[in-house]
């Protein structure tokens, strides 16, 4: 809380006259609104971006009409359409769980944003267990997905939910293990602390530490994070050609939109964690570029990784369930264990 | 008569219901499902992700083609056969026209013969391109679909120019073709071949030799050669199992014996002979061979009037015939009975996709749900032809 209060009083010195409780409440509210607005706008932007990127990869134009310039307003129009659609709940569905599922999935994404460090001062809550917090809170999304798949009372949805649970639970292990190597280097779980330990130009970023071992850790993290957010080639829970639409087959209108927004928000979150843990967060690649504010670098790095995710999605086919499990348990997990060992020994040797 | 005691010995034991009783999961795949290629329903019994049995149910697209044909005059049947396999209309009407011409003893003029070859081979490429795209979709790759359709669009434009239609052409008539090729059309066909052949490498780079794609299709849905023959498979699905059988070579019709081309068979390069990858790759190679045939036909085509042999009144002498041709899906056979009247008495169609689909229950057992989609896609079925 302190850094963000400092940011507020720096921006508007008059605010420091207010009593502490009022200032804290105001700051928290504004930060929450800014974050929510950011998620909504980013998801809209990312959906538009994905459509344009996929279109250009496939020799077509993508949305061109709505809003004039390259169809920038297409997703806004789509969201308005989804808002106005009839809210259908299947007759045999478990109504409470059915309604709860998209809320859980979406709130989990929002909750993860709390610890993302945007710049030296702007981090909504610099928890001393930031990385642990984000790992544990993002595991909750699987409950929402299972809930949605079960409550729909649809066999395809159930299949999707089952696959999703198996997948997310297995891929959390390589994610956590590869992040442990980062913690070994930085010695802190605080997101701000992780960024600050990478001061200097781009060679001091964690990804170039103990080259090439941390680079491998980054690749492991990135592959596993694709599975964590159900992106190709690990998009089995919503595999269109097998499971119709997976766990959200029965969802329509705004409830579907929440799943959709959460997916794009999650894409950003995993990329932002990668940017923080491996790519120096809001730090510029060269120290003389310090005058450009931190959020630019942070957002730029995360957005680049989001782009890579989209690129992969429109290039690769999808793995099969057993191959997916094989990749996680027999490739990524052992390799990340080995990396932890190597990094620990290296640290011992260079003490 | 001595009665045997049929009661089981455990009859008087107390039966404890199994608290963890498991059952098969019965799943209706289709009729509305993204990868059943139309309106096929496959009844799946699964144990988790593993398929215990898959039973196809067909008939959702039945349009009584065979009954319609009995009410139509001989030339009026042509638009109906177009609608059977709507991805390869030219090949379907070619088979019908050849069958009726043979019954009539009609000689078709040379230029029309060549035009027929060109359009049917173009349509074979177009059909295989749709297969390439939809198969990519089946295994989760979206982009090859649009690449395939980009090239198919060019073929469709050529067809539109020569016949006026973009999907159903009604172009190959009894005794010839509906229109002669417009000026410059043949050069455009050659240009298309120049444009198309390098694209094959693009497909191979993007999909064919992609590691994940090979993992998904190699050793999946293996159909051994004897099983394939027993089930009456034909076309690329049969050749994928390593059986060298192509009606264009083995029982040449039209003027196919004048062209130099290879029959592509599955070699099991990435796995076992007869797996889904082989069936896929046979089709990719066949597109190259078709382009080869088209080039030869364009070079050899004589001048003349393609319509001169189209008869004004079609009178088919009484008799019956079974005539088979090689469509992109396999052996398309027409069994036609005539009593010398204005209408056919019976037009029975041996649809290749129908026979190819029949193998699904035999190979689906024990595979995973995702494999089933890959196998079904590799059979390249068109429901319009299966249900007719």
Q: What's the mean pLDDT score of chain B?
A: 86
Strand content of chain B: 5-15%
Beta-strand segment tally of chain B: 8
Overall shape of chain A: globular
Cα-atom Rg of chain B, whole angstroms? 24 Å
What does this structure look like?
The complex is a heterodimer of chains A (351) and B (388). Chain A has 13 helices and no strands. Chain A is mostly helical and 351 residues long. Chain A has one domain. Chain B has 388 residues and is an alpha+beta fold. Chain B has 16 helices and 8 strands. In chain B, strand 4 and strand 5 form a beta hairpin. Chain B is globular, with a radius of gyration of 24 Å. The model of chain B has no long low-confidence stretch (mean pLDDT 86). Chains A and B meet through helix 7, helix 10 and helix 13 of A and helix 4, helix 5, helix 8 and helix 15 of B.
Short summary:
The complex is a heterodimer of chains A (351) and B (388). Chain A has 351 residues and is mainly alpha-helical. Chain A is 66% helix and 0% strand.
SSE order and pairing:
The complex is a heterodimer of chains A (351) and B (388).
Chain A: H1 2-11, H2 20-57, H3 74-84, H4 95-112, H5 130-139, H6 141-151, H7 155-186, H8 191-196, H9 213-228, H10 240-243, H11 253-278, H12 294-313, H13 321-349
Helix pairs in contact in A: 2-3, 2-11, 3-11, 4-5, 4-6, 4-11, 6-7, 7-9, 7-13, 9-11, 9-13, 11-12
Chain B: E1 25-29, E2 41-47, E3 50-57, H1 65-71, H2 77-82, H3 89-104, H4 110-138, H5 143-163, E4 172-173, E5 176-177, H6 185-196, H7 199-208, H8 211-217, H9 225-230, H10 236-239, H11 247-250, H12 276-300, E6 319-327, E7 330-338, E8 346-350, H13 352-357, H14 360-364, H15 369-378, H16 383-387
Antiparallel strand pairs in B: 1-2, 2-3, 4-5, 6-7, 7-8
